[in-house]
Amino acid sequence: MKGVILAAGRGSRLLPVSAGRPKHAVPIAGVPIIARAVRALRAAGVEEVAVVSSPASETALREATRGEGPLTFLRQEEPRGTGHAVLAAREFLEGGPALLYLGDNLFADALTPLTAALHDADAALGVKRVPDPSAYGVAVVRDDLLTRLDEKPRRPASDLAACGVFAFHPHVLEEVARLTPSERGEIEFPQALLRVIASGGRVRAVSFSGFWSDAGTPADLLTASAHFLAGLSPCVDGDVSGSHLSGPVVVEAGATVQDCTLIGPVLIGAGASVRGSTLGPNVSIGPQAQVEGATLSDTLIDEAATVRRPTRPLVRTVIGRRATVAAPSDTGLQIVVGDHSVLRV
Asked: The Nucleotidyl transferase domain covers which part of the protein (predicted)?
């Protein structure tokens, strides 16, 4: 079994967090999204994993997956859709069944039921019941078999969202190669599944019941971060003094925590410094970040960012790499806001 992670997109809905790197490299509870994808495939028994990247994203993705074992990196030279990205991996995939993982997805469920579904089907896709299916590709299923896929319909025919993970036998690649561009001008992999069905094949729908997110927006990042932080096991390898810790708190090696209250789940990354602050629940502090005199909850602070004595608590906040949030000066608010940013003062 081989696996392919599609990670060529930039993630415009995640701006400005994704402005300086691909969204797949953004950390969730200390682990880059794409690294979590690699681990999910490995746990499903996939031995060979390829990552399809764009020319601009490959370096960042290689860095984000360092330490995740051997990976093959392939290029999608132009952003022409998921089917086009799969064809960039066609030579890698030929010869056996495969798992396809859209790289910005995060799952709690194991992916092994997808591979098991191939014993009596040409392909399989993950589906999950959601309260607002119109925001997703919607699967219409009968007797656990896919009959139709509708992309973000106004009136959904079911409450089953297609979750962005698929398994298929190699002959499905022939159907991908026959696809023509959609109305959006893209070659879309799910349409190949409909061609399989039209020719008499079987596509099994595998229902997921656990946590799932496509990490498409900053709000999605915070929801995913809270989910994965909840699974932390308490561990203090850094230097903690004069502080009160409760619940699952992780302080990584080289981090310093002084005169703080940490209400888990909280993660303090390696080399970070947190002083005179109240953190939690659901707070993740990236490596080398600095936090002083702050009250934070449901917040993600990325690598080498600085939060220094803000005048009010920060709630449901995402602060990117090397960004600075501080109290106003004597002359008033001083704000530098980049493209696609959101600021509420």
From this structure: 2-228
User: Given this model, what pLDDT does residue 251 score?
Assistant: 98
Q: What is the DSSP string of 16-58?
A: TTTSSS-GGGSEETTEEHHHHHHHHHHHTT--EEEEEE-TTTH
- Is the separation of the CB atoms in 179 and 193 below 8 Å? no
Ordered domains of the chain (ranges, CATH): 2-227 (3.90.550.10), 234-326 (2.160.10.10)
What is the CB neighbour count within 10 angstroms for residue 328? Answer: 12
Q: What is the pLDDT of residues 219-235, one digit of tens each?
A: 999 999 999 999 999 99
- Residue 82: in which H helix or E strand, if any? helix 82-88
Residue 132's Cβ-side half-sphere holds a number of Cα atoms within 13 Å equal to 1
- Residue 12, both tokens: 């415009």
**Which residues lie closer than 8 Å to 312 by C-beta, 6 or more apart?**
none
Token pair belonging to 114: 């997808």
pLDDT band at 18 (very low <50, low <70, confident <90, very high): confident
Q: What's the rounded Cα separation, in Å, for the pair 281 and 113?
A: 33
Contacts of 274 (CB under 8 A, 6+ apart): 255, 256, 257, 258, 260, 268, 285, 290, 291, 292
- Measuring CA to CA, how many Å separate 286 from each of 112, 237, 251, 304? 32, 15, 11, 7
- Residue 93 above 80 pLDDT? yes
pLDDT in tens, 135-160: 889 999 999 999 999 988 889 999 99
* Confidence bin at 324 (pLDDT 50/70/90): very high
Which residues are bridge partners to 306 per DSSP?
Answer: 290, 324
Q: Which two tokens stand for residue 48?
A: 């060979």
Do 145 and 205 form a contact (C-beta atoms < 8 A)?
yes
DSSP annotation string for 111-154 = SHHHHHGGGG-SEEEEEEE-S-GGGSEEEEEETTEEEEEEES-S
Strand, helix or coil for residue 318? strand
Q: What are the tens digits of pLDDT across the range 158-189?
A: 999 999 999 999 999 999 999 999 888 899 99
Strands 123-129 and 160-168: antiparallel
